[in-house]
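Example 3.2
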Amino acid sequence: MRAAVFFTAVLVCAGAISAQELEPANSIDSSAVAAFADEFFPRELARRQIPGGVFVFVSGGDIALARGFGVAQLEPRRPVDPDRTVFRLASVSKVITATAALQLVEQTRIGLDTDVNTYLRSFQLAAAHGPITLHHLLTHTAGFDERLIGSGARAAKDLQPLSRYLARSMPPTFVEPGRVISYSNHGFALVGDIVEEVSGRPFADYVREEIFEPLGMSRSDALTGRIPGNLAVAYEFVDGKHRALSPDYIQVSPAGAFFTTGTDMGRFLIAHLRGGALRDRRILRPETVALMHAEHFVQAPATSGWAYGLWEDTRNGQRALLHNGGGKGYRALVYLLPQQDAGFFLAYNLADRHDEGELQEVFVTQFRQRFVSGRQSTGERVEEQTSTKQFVGDYLYIRRARTTMEKMISVVNRMHIATDDKATLSMTGSSGRPITLTPIGPLLFRRSDGRGIVGFDAMVGNRPDRLVMVTDGGFPAVYERIPLIATLGVQLTWLSGMALTFLYAAIWRPLVAVFHWRRVAGWDSMRWSTWLAGVASALNLLFMVGFPLTFLGRIEGGVPEFLYGVPMSAAALLLIPPVTAIVSIAATIAGAGIWVHGRTALTTRLAHAVVVVALLSFVVFAWYWHLMPTLKS
């Protein structure tokens, strides 16, 4: 199957290269882009409190525009220079990693459809759901669970060798490969590890020697050691002030560790637009570039899909390829328009949050509106779906942890689909604002806020299995339907019920027991049970409040503390669930006598039973969220 795609790609690319000998009929006016950029970036950087950014536009095989805006550093003030200022790429690094892998595919040293265990020497992937191939890794369809704990490092000395880290930390799969898009940093780190194993060179050295040096990208490299002197300082804006953030490192370096300048990245984009070459310096053959840029996986019909290392933006029938990235206080984006023989790179040094969307998202939308003409939507409604009730339910973002304590933070990224008596669908996310969904095709809807489309995956028992929310930037964010027990409402009800019971058992019951103990001699099973249950309840309350706060820790530039490992305070609190499980069992045994002897009032016995049920329920709760230390975390 992949051979047929490859052959088709050769033919497509041959036509594309021939077309490049002439000026494209739909080329973009570089002077108009310059005017737009010079108006857009100063305004938006100031409005969003972003210190500085870089924008490079390439067209017709040349860097047509290279602009630096604002400053790379506030104190002392250092302006952004597109030739010298270094910006971190974060996940844009994956485009470079995919390029490196395709070089070895081109040399037939790696097969796209070969089990990757064939190339791994340091460890082997568990094939719980079937063999994983390079094709799966490059399209994020390998089906890996998410894992963030310990994937970052505060200093270069804390970085582990790539293969060693992956051998210890590679997450398991949750679904058969090739079934669903689930974006994976570890999956792309594995691509880099394969390149390292097959080439016999450290991955960063391979990229430097086989991609950066041939293209003259002299100021580009991977951040695995000394901080480059011209690196743009990352900032966060808090309480009306900018605060500089210290650079951090990532263990999954092929997925996000590269840095570059604006003009260096311009050279890389030209090579991708010009069949793998920058003038006489070639990194890929034309047919390999065409293969890399071809669509290889779509989750639902009429939605954006994945090429190799890039995803699609197909608004108005005009296809573009892109990848963005974000880290602690910085953002980056590459955008290719092969039909126009043009593309651009932008990066800036603050992780902006805005109701209108991030700066990169807004820029892409406005750029396309001005310079990328295409088929205009008629705006007409299609025939209504036969039933909208089939879509109703709660959905969770498919990229999440399922086997570690990170599972508890997954409830934040959710969607609820509802319908009214007029069969109109609405979607409500974490913001709490309902968004109306207007049908535009079979299983396909447009969002009323104008920020993309929503499609539904294949039907399972007359109900859609997955929701695909495609934003204006084209990223196919996939959400999957979850059972009732996993919904936020049920979980909050469960948690609240336990918390109220624990407050009663930890405060009110012990006070009452002390009062009665002064009047009645002895220390019977009821009193033992009351105090044991009170201790367990108090500890559980401490855990319920303290663990989420200490686990997340201080969030800097959008990055939580657990990225560098479980904080010590959180690790200490993790001792509570197994301890209270033991105490809860003891309280249950000690209190069993009150039912046997029947010496206490029925209301007292019932109240005690409720407390015991809550205590045992907490054990189940901790197990469900992988908060017991006996489970791998």
